[in-house]
Amino acid sequence: MAEKKSLAKLEPLFFGRVSRVVAGGLTLYWAVGFWGPDSGSVIASILVGFLGLSFLVGGLMGNPGCELTALPNLFFPPEKRYHTL
Q: CA-to-CA distance for 70 and 85, rounded, in angstroms?
């Protein structure tokens, strides 16, 4: 009988991984543009930089689901990682 795979265990597609890495690079580049002398721009740069780094890590790791879970999942063993779809 054919074995069924859950959605969280499917291998990510190549195009999806490459697009995440490209989006992460562009987002990090955009985060540098926010940097300025006031505290609001520093906070915006940090938040957008976190999102860009999360895109990069999610694309390189092949993290299924939301990109925001990619960075925390670096610190958990594979069986305890959190994925959202």
A: 13
pTM of the predicted structure, to 2 decimals: 0.71
Angle subtended by helix axes 39-61 and 14-34, to nearest 10: 160
Burial class (CB within 10 angstroms; exposed 0-12, middle 13-18, buried 19+) of 44: middle
Amino acid identity of residue 80, one-letter, is K
4 DSSP 8-state letter: P
Q: How far is CA 81 from the centre of its chain?
A: 14
Whether 56 and 24 have beta carbons less than 8 Å apart is answered as yes
- Residues (pLDDT < 70) of the chain are 1-12, 85
Match 């609001």 to its residue by tokens.
40
